[in-house]
Amino acid sequence: MNDEILSQNEIDALLSAISTGEMSAEDLKKDESERRVKVYDFKRALRFSKDQIRNLTRIYDNYARLLTTYFSSQLRTYINISVASVDQIPYEEYIRSVPHMTILNVIEIPPLEGRMIMEVHPNLGYTMLDRILGGKGTNYNKIDNLTEIEMKLMKNLFDRTLDYLQEAWSSLIEIDPILLEIEVNPQFLHVVSPNETVVVISMNATVGETSGMINICIPHVLLEPVIPKLSAHYWMEDMDKVINPEEAVLLEKKIKEAKLEIIAELGSSNISVADFLSLSLGDVIELNANINAPMVVKIGNKPKFLGQAGTKNKRMAVQILEEIKEGNEEDGW
């Protein structure tokens, strides 16, 4: 039971109401009893835990960022997409909320069985279409069905979003998304049974001056095989997993091939701005280093070795004399 702590003013107000007869002790007990009762609708049984919803939200936060970049390059206008909410509701309730003459992308994501829906609000869909056809992206209401040419253009636009969907899901499972069809009437869609629980990820989207929603509807039956992977325990294990030997060899090879900037520092000097501005060819700047002292060799602007200048094969060179070790390196950190 959650105990609610009252402030002193609230306590004084309650005592005053009881003493004046405005509220009796029985009324207070009755009110407290009623607050403890929570209505539970078995038709809307929650089948995902908070951790699973939270991790699913992470996946689609990443997907929203990828979509923002993709649509910005394709439509060449201001785009902003972000996750607004993630809810689990019966499929029947979701499909009733979908407006008519909207853009409904039906997607399969093998190896998972089932289909998911990517619903794009009509205002957004038709604004995108106007931008593709060279318009300014002015919001307008289209009341008839999409023509074959318009349907092909929309399919091409959203077909390429599947690569980003695959990338967003890669932390959970490797999928191969397929855009099956684009529908405009929600009544023709029968993805799952009406009482089946679905997760609806709602994303706020802005295309130019037009705003609307992009909703992703994922049935529970589709996510069922990967539900254990959505738990916080799995994600913590995934973070701690050991790299296999082949990955370790490849990683070591890539690191060895990486190029680093090496700087052999002869010395340094401080001069005034006036002296710097009056420098000309043939002038000599006195450095603070002794000619017989070793040079500091820097890797990535960090002192790493001591060396001495010389030549090799008639080219200037630096011979490494010793390594500059810091305290934590000597301790084996």
Automatic annotation (TrEMBL):
InterPro entries: CheC-like_sf (IPR028976), Flag_FliM (IPR001689), FliN-like_C (IPR001543), SpoA-like_sf (IPR036429). Residues 254-324 form the Flagellar motor switch protein FliN-like C-terminal domain. Its main location: other. Coiled coil: none annotated. The gene is fliM. This is Flagellar motor switch protein FliM. It comes from the Bacteria. PANTHER family: FLAGELLAR MOTOR SWITCH PROTEIN FLIM, YOP PROTEINS TRANSLOCATION PROTEIN Q. It is found in: Bacterial flagellum basal body; Cell membrane. It comes from Lederbergia graminis. CDD domains: FliM. It holds the Pfam family FliMN_C. Signal peptide: none annotated. Keywords: Bacterial flagellum, Cell membrane, Cell projection, Chemotaxis, Cilium, Flagellar rotation, Flagellum, Membrane. NCBIfam families: fliM_switch. Belongs to the FliM family. It is a peripheral membrane protein.
